Structures are given as C-alpha cells and as structure tokens.
C-alpha cells in the first residue's frame, strides 16, 4: 500500500534581495588565514541589539549575513519542519545566552592581550554557531537557529512591545477583513510566526521575534497586510 506523504505547512518563499551571505563566506575564509579579522564580528553582535531598541529585530531580517544565507540559500533545500517549541521558551533562550557568553568570556580571558588570539575567539564563535545553524536548517527549518540565537534573544528583549513607537519602528498590520483561513503569511514566515493573529489590531503585530522581512505581506493573496 502506497503511503501518502504528509504535506509540509511551511515553505520556501523567494523574494528579491542582495546576497549578503557573501559577507559571511568572506569573513570565514579571510578569518581562517588572518585571525584578527574575526574582530569584525563585533558589528553583528552589537548592531542588532542597538537597532532593536527602535526598530525591533529589523537587523535579523534585513542585514544579518547569516540570516540572509538561511533565507536565500538553505531555505531552498530545508524540509521546513516545525521549529521545536522548547527552543523558543524563555528558559532555554536564557540558558543559551548565559552558555554562549560564558564560553566566549572564558576564551576571551585567556586570549586577551593578543589581537590575533582575540580575533580567533570571535571567529570560532561565528564558525561554530553557523555550523549549528546549517545543521538545524537541514533537520528542521532555515531559521531554527534564529529562534534562540543569543543576539536575537537580546534583540527581542530590547524590542519595544507597547507604548509610543518611534517613526522607524516597523510592524506588520493586518486589515480587519482578514478571514485567517489561508494562513499564507504564516506559511512563508521564516520564524514560523502567525501575523494573522493581529487582524484589525491598530498597534500591529508586535511579536518581538518578528524580523520585519516583509515576506508575509508579499505572500498575502488579498494584499491586506502591510509592513
């Protein structure tokens, strides 16, 4: 008897954009030969959190070279399975923040004073976490790592959740006419979120893990969503 393969809810959704993943590849290659280049990782550690204060996780969905790799390259081949719920829990995410920074801090302590050694510490963190992210992309979904990435978690904590938002703060707004039946927005969301939940809400979709990529608005068949 032939088994019917269960259709996956989430799917790859192509959108135009720049190949920022080339920055990551260049960094990993040059950093291997010239360790001091590893210090460049400071940009991708500080920028997302600082930007989140006014724009939410905008960096993650628009400027992060690794996130760009997940969306533009690995998404084509990922099985797009549901991201495990436990990696989204506060407990697990706090553990990851503490664990990564503890390992990073210990290595940095012993490398301090030698710029090449310090750069190598940064490079190692980026290389190892990228490898973990790639593996998870092929096991679950492209942005599985982004669901508990320490910098992403810090950015989510720094993201405005209510009150008066700055002019630069983007969020998805869904018109009240949405019937929440097709769920096209949820199917293409890299973070596997449900933007349709904010139907008719004047404040918009305020999930702090929304990366402001805009894929949901492009996938909406009736175009009643906007970023």
How does this model look, in words?
The longest helix is centred in the middle third of the chain and has 25 residues, at 115-139. The protein has helices at residues 21-33, 41-55, 58-62, 65-72, 90-111, 115-139, 150-158, 184-188, 215-219; strands spanning 173-174, 225-226. Helix content is 47%, strand content 2%. The protein contains nine helices and two strands, in the order αααααααβααβ. Helix 1 packs across helix 4 (65-72), helix 1 packs across helix 6 and helix 2 runs parallel beside helix 7. Strands 1-2 form a two-stranded antiparallel ribbon. The relative contact order is 0.18. By secondary structure, the protein is mostly helical. It folds into two domains: 21-158, no CATH class; 162-227, 2-Layer Sandwich (Alpha-Beta Plaits), CATH 3.30.70. Mean pLDDT is 91; it is low at 1-5.
């Amino acid at each position: 008897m032939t088994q019917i393969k269960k259709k996956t809810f989430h799917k790859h959704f192509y959108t135009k954009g720049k190949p920022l993943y080339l920055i990551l590849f260049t960094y990993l290659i040059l950093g291997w030969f010239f360790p001091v280049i590893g210090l460049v990782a400071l940009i991708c550690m500080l920028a997302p959190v600082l930007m989140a204060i006014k724009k939410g996780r905008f960096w993650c969905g628009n400027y992060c070279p690794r996130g760009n790799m997940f969306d533009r390259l690995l998404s084509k081949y990922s099985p797009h399975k549901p991201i495990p719920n436990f990696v989204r829990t506060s407990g697990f995410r706090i553990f990851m923040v503490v664990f990564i920074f503890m390992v990073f801090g210990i290595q940095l302590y012993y490398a301090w004073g030698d710029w090449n050694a310090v750069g190598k510490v940064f490079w190692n963190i980026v290389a190892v976490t990228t490898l973990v992210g790639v593996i998870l992309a092929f096991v679950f979904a492209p942005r599985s790592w982004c669901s508990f990435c320490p910098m992403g978690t810090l950015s989510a904590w720094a993201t405005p959740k209510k009150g008066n938002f700055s002019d630069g703060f983007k969020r998805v707004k869904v018109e009240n006419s949405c019937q929440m039946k097709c769920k096209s927005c949820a199917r293409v969301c890299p973070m596997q979120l449900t933007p349709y939940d904010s139907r008719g809400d004047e404040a918009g979709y305020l999930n702090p893990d929304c990366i402001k990529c805009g894929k949901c608005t492009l996938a909406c068949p009736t175009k009643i969503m906007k970023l």
